[in-house]
Amino acid sequence: MQFMRKIRDEEGQALVLVALAMSIFLIGAIGLGIDGSHLYAHRQMAQTAADAAALSAIEDIYEGTYSAGGTGFSIAAFTCSTSDTRTPCAYAANNGFGTNANDTVAISFPGSVPGVSGLAAGFPAELVTAKVSRTVPTTLLRFLGPTSTTVSATA
Questions:
Q1: Angle 74-125-99 (CA atoms, 0-180°, nearest 5)?
Q2: Checking DSSP bridges between strand 129-137 and strand 148-154, what pairing results, if any?
Q3: Dihedral of CA 78/80/83/86: which sign?
């Protein structure tokens, strides 16, 4: 009789362990969904900013306005500051990147790119590369691992 009472007192312990394990799994799954969509949105914004910066730079080069006035730039690699007014930096900032210390907007002018031929001659640069990156903090995944991750895009 005493043995039966002991078993009844211990009933439900497995339920507590299963509930605890399920809660950790659910936090991870919800965190992956929330943080994953947040990082995806930042990645899309980064690609838009990189595309805008590269297109504005090459357009200024083809129009011959790249070195004119205070918004011009020289044909040398540079990294934008948070208050930079050069054309590629301004276009990246208009698309949400380059205005805070967590952002990096780097513009370079490579001499060649594999698979690209028949470039226009007579211009100081035929190719522009814009690399944009941002450190994004995580929310729920912070409880299970990384506190931040870097999102980047190249155009």
A1: 50
A2: antiparallel
A3: positive
- The model's pLDDT over 81-108, given as tens digits with 9 standing for 90+, comes to 888 888 899 999 999 898 888 899 999 9
Q: Which long-range contacts (CB under 8 A, 24 or more apart) does 32-35 make?
A: 32/141, 34/139, 34/140, 35/138, 35/139, 35/140, 35/141
How many residues would you count in the chain?
155
**Distance between CA 113 and CA 138 in Å, rounded?**
35
Q: For residues 105 and 76, give the distance between their C-alpha atoms in angstroms, rounded to a whole number.
A: 14
Contact in structure between 27 and 140 (CB atoms under 8 Å): yes
Identify the residue with better confidence: 19 or 155. 155
User: In sequence order, what are the residues at sequence separation of 6 or more whose Cβ sits closer than 8 angstroms to the Cβ of residue 92?
Assistant: 49, 50, 52, 53, 80, 98, 105, 130, 132
Phi and psi based region of residue 151 (left: phi greater than 0; alpha: psi -120 to 50; beta: remaining): beta
Residue 101 neighbours by CB under 8 Å, 6+ apart: 82
* Tens digit of each residue's pLDDT (9 = 90 or more) over 19-44: 888 887 887 788 788 888 989 999 99
